[in-house]
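Lab notebook, page 48
Experiment: co-folding of the full assembly
Goal: obtain a model of how the components sit together before planning crosslinking
Operator: M.T.
Materials (sequences as entered):
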Amino acid sequence: GAVVSQHPSWVICKSGTSVKIECRSLDFQATTMFWYRQFPKQSLMLMATSNEGSKATYEQGVEKDKFLINHASLTLSTLTVTSAHPEDSSFYICSATGWNTEAFFGQGTRLTVV
Amino acid sequence: AQSVTQLDSHVSVSEGTPVLLRCNYSSSYSPSLFWYVQHPNKGLQLLLKYTSAATLVKGINGFEAEFKKSETSFHLTKPSAHMSDAAEYFCVVSDTNAGKSTFGDGTTLTVKP
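Observation: model returned without errors.
Model output:
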């Protein structure tokens, strides 16, 4: 099956700094990528949807200026958590879909802000 | 619109006994359905998926699920639980055309020795 690689798998950063998470489709062209967040002992919630070459669409309640999403190519999307705070500590996971294909998930990134 | 309901937040079984994790879905489209497993502090691992082919889907580690359109269900089963099966399980429905996935709330499976 198709492979989606997410990097890093875990990161610890200081409060106030920014963190970038990459999501790559390794063997297919991802026309759309999705970013999810999972708080401890909760399910995954969709944060935003990004289509290659256009601005991301954010779900209600997600701050677009804090969670910057870039989808500049058909194989790479990035999520940047700006001015991170401890409450942003979470598990972030991306998924990617190509032309009329199912979504394939990355392995996730565990962010801890100290 | 799509949604998924995992009917049990916690399931506890004894090692060697059958496992049943229940999932009901709703979707405006012909959905794709998935089961993922997540071990503590780990990412998601795909167990199996249904994408409009055979209604009985076999996955990894002895798991299987049956798509029942009339019941809008996609329950996950395994004949004999192993200690290593203890984890969080997520049922997911995806709009194949858009790829947007909706997760259930998860079911925590505990396996007793």
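Interpretation: The CA atoms of residues 64 and 95 of chain B lie 21 Å apart.
Next step: discuss with group before ordering constructs.
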